[in-house]
UniProtKB/TrEMBL annotation:
Keyword Isomerase carried by entry: no
GO MF assignments: asparaginyl-tRNA synthase (glutamine-hydrolyzing) activity; ATP binding; glutaminyl-tRNA synthase (glutamine-hydrolyzing) activity; transferase activity
Domain of life: Bacteria
Organism from which the protein derives: Sphingomonas spermidinifaciens
Subunit field text: Heterotrimer of A, B and C subunits.
A GO biological process held by the record: translation
EC code: 6.3.5.-
UniProt gene name: gatB
Leader sequence segment: none
Origin organism lineage: Bacteria, Pseudomonadati, Pseudomonadota, Alphaproteobacteria, Sphingomonadales
Name the record gives this protein: Aspartyl/glutamyl-tRNA(Asn/Gln) amidotransferase subunit B
Pfam family, one: GatB_Yqey
């Protein structure tokens, strides 16, 4: 249960949140036509006669779009409706050539499901919360109005017209901006694992309508507002925070909340009124006369289920149980499908010498730190999984120390060379020559007789100083294990 509250003059208020996420279906063609769906194409270059609503054009459902929506439903343990139907949602807008949108109001493709979110994504021990999903229905997108191309006119780009969307409607189960942010991130992760949407919110292929109301804890739901087309997790959270506070201020000053559609201004961090909220009857929904109902057979459903990958929650559980990873490491490595794939390729290339624990720690600290510094994601990493495995093998077998490993990794990032080639060319091999190490230890102890006396007098923490001095004298190339062993012998002898 979230303890997030807005502290008003009349007491505490609870926030009630539901999200309608529009996710663009991964498909090379649109929902009812064969037109392309590539992002960033020149305006009006991906428009068929169906998308432009030319007279006599009839829609034909794209099987792949239906398949992807079904697979998404299965991934969130939702009910799949073998019989569903398309409806016409009638409204006029300049970017909607048909004068209606083909959607699914009364009989959606996917029924109730659930998404498990972490209550604290940085602390896996904080527990989880199940957020209910009411439905997933399939619908076509509208086009796009372009207001910045001319001082007095707006232009219409119909490239997006007819693109397949999944509208994923949550139940009003979220009680804080943080829970809403965790829900959107988890949903995006699932979509990317399944491959049904790329989740690129900055490109508009995933956007959220944010429903917010407030109430005194324990009271019935209040009147909600809907903030449309919010296109980042951060903005979703900011819109909720602002809108909830606005509603509390209105109610505490004696006003009432109007059920309306609002827009979020990311530059100012505020929501503003757009139009009064419509009800279903305002759109005059009725079954689309050009489309037969969808009827799914068992073979199709079995094929959809068989095509699902291992999903993030199952993968995280396996990483903990089979690989012995900590809950935190397992959660970080499974948060994105690309990260999990990279990590598994690293393990496969590492063989028996590279442990899962060592590999996970290296990916999360060294690799992620470097990628963050150079502004790249794991898919564009200059170091491949095979190269990473080669480096970890050299550390595991004692060829180089952890400290030298960090130096070698930096050179790998800059040059793209393999770890073995770098170690050979630059003479970075770790030495386990006990004679050479003992000689340096003798010099260090002779130069620090006062500290030797202090150590032998009970100041055990000085041991680290002697290790550091010895490693420095040997340019970091001494085997740390042997240095420790020989130092103990020399100091305690």
């Amino acid at each position: 249960m979230s303890d997030y509250r807005i502290h008003g003059a009349t007491g505490d208020w609870e926030v009630v949140i539901g999200l309608e996420v529009h996710a663009q279906v991964t498909s090379k063609a649109k929902l009812f036509s064969g037109a392309a769906t590539a992002f960033g194409a020149e305006p009006n270059t991906q428009v068929s006669l169906v998308d432009a609503a030319m007279p006599g054009m009839l829609p034909v459902p794209n099987r792949e779009c239906i398949r992807q929506a079904v697979r998404t439903g299965m991934a969130i343990d939702a009910a799949i409706n073998k019989w569903s139907r398309f409806d016409r949602k009638n409204y006029f807008y300049a970017d909607l050539p048909q004068g209606y949108q083909i959607s699914q109001l009364y009989h959606p493709l996917v029924g109730e499901g659930r998404i498990e979110i972490a209550l604290d994504e940085k602390n896996p021990d904080a527990g989880t919360k199940a957020i209910g999903v009411e439905r997933i229905h399939v619908e076509q997108d509208a086009g796009k109005l372009m207001h910045d191309q001319h001082p007095t006119r707006s232009y219409v780009d119909l490239n997006r017209s007819g693109v397949a969307l999944m509208e994923i409607v949550s139940k009003p189960d979220m009680r804080s901006p943080a829970e809403a942010g965790a829900y959107v991130r988890k949903l995006r992760t699932i979509l990317r694992y399944v491959g049904s949407c790329d989740g690129n919110m900055e490109e508009g292929s995933m956007r959220a309508d944010v429903n917010v109301s407030v109430r005194k804890p324990g009271e019935p739901f209040g009147t909600r507002t809907e903030t449309k087309n919010v296109n980042s997790v951060r903005f979703v959270m900011a819109a909720i925070e602002y809108e909830a506070q606005r509603q509390v201020d209105v109610l505490e000053s004696g006003g009432t909340i109007v059920q309306e559609t609002r827009l979020f201004d990311p530059d100012k961090g505020v929501t503003r009124s757009m139009r009064s909220k419509e009800d279903a009857h305002d759109y005059r929904y009725f079954p689309d006369p050009d489309l037969l109902p969808l009827e799914l057979d068992d073979a199709f459903l079995e094929e959809c289920r068989a095509s699902l990958p291992e999903l993030p929650d199952a993968k995280r559980t396996r990483y903990e149980a089979e690989l012995g990873l900590s809950p935190y490491n397992a959660a970080v490595l499974t948060a994105e499908a690309e990260t999990a794939r990279w990590f598994e390729a690293l393990l496969a290339a590492g063989g028996d010498k590279v442990t899962a624990k060592a590999a996970s720690n290296w990916v999360i600290s060294d690799l992620f730190g470097a990628l963050n510094r150079i502004g790249k994601d794991i898919e564009s990493s200059p170091v491949t999984p095979a190269q990473g495995a080669e480096l970890l093998r050299l550390i595991a077998d004692g060829t180089i120390s952890n400290t030298l490993g960090k130096q070698v990794f930096e050179i790998m990032l800059e040059t793209g060379e393999g770890a073995e080639a770098i170690v050979e060319a630059r003479g970075l091999k770790q030495t386990s020559d006990t004679g050479a190490i003992e000689a340096e230890i003798a010099k260090v102890l002779a130069a620090n007789e006062d500290k030797v006396a202090d150590y032998r007098g009970g100041k055990d923490k000085l041991f680290g100083f002697f290790v550091g001095q010895t490693m420095k004298a040997m340019a970091g190339k001494a085997n740390p294990g042997i240095v420790n062993e020989l130092l103990k012998k020399a100091l305690n002898g």
